[in-house]
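User: I'm new to structure prediction. If I give you an amino acid sequence, what do you actually give back? Let's try with this one:
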Amino acid sequence: MKPPGVWKFWGTLLWGILVFAAMGIGQIGVVAYFVFTNQTPMDAAAMVAMLGDGRTIALSVIAGLPGVLLVLWIATRLSRIPFAEYLGLEKFSWKYFLIGLVGLAVLSQGWDFVAKGVGHEVSPGFMGEVLKTARAQNALWLLVLSFCVAAPLTEELMTRGFLYRGWSESFLRPLGAIIVSSLVWTCMHLQYDAFFLAQVLSIGLLFGWLRYACGSIWVTIVLHGLNNLAATLQTMYLLSGS
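Assistant: Good question. You get back a string of structure tokens that encode the predicted 3D arrangement of the chain. For your 242 residues, that looks like this:
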């Protein structure tokens, strides 16, 4: 019998595509459901319009998580390495949590300073519109749950968990795995413009280093959730003053 082993570069890439597909099926299914129940034409324009709806986005993010967990479970099962061990669901490190928290604060303040300096908005307009619609639908709590719990779990398990683990043990080595998994994570946020994508990439590199340094994605999951919560609260504050 073949001994337990981590999926290397190509295996991780192929399984990663399946994970993304599973996430997409769950998310698109929610959007399609709301388009259908609203009795609007089932076309691309209707689907795009739904992507600006707070309740729909919240439910689609949550709906993507089960499929991700299922495919990751199958992939790790076939590797014959325990699920938690493979994905870095190891003991939480307070030391690296505090380092990451300081790093996030520095990055956040630095990007806010740059945004004000170049006359760019501090918070994405996309976020503002989503929050407005969620508040109007009394679904703000659901949006916060999806942004601060479901999204961090889904994205960290996929990128810093599965992709990093396999690629770090391939020819990419840890440094290459940090960079490439951070680029993949950045591409998951294409609803933002280039300025905010650069910000996402910088946070991804920080999270990637934390994954390498402490060996646990619990740290990045919690920091990811706190970062999303801070961004949500900041956007709500800016909306209240507009």
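You can read the tokens as a compact description of the fold. Here is one thing that stands out. The chain has a mean pLDDT of 91.
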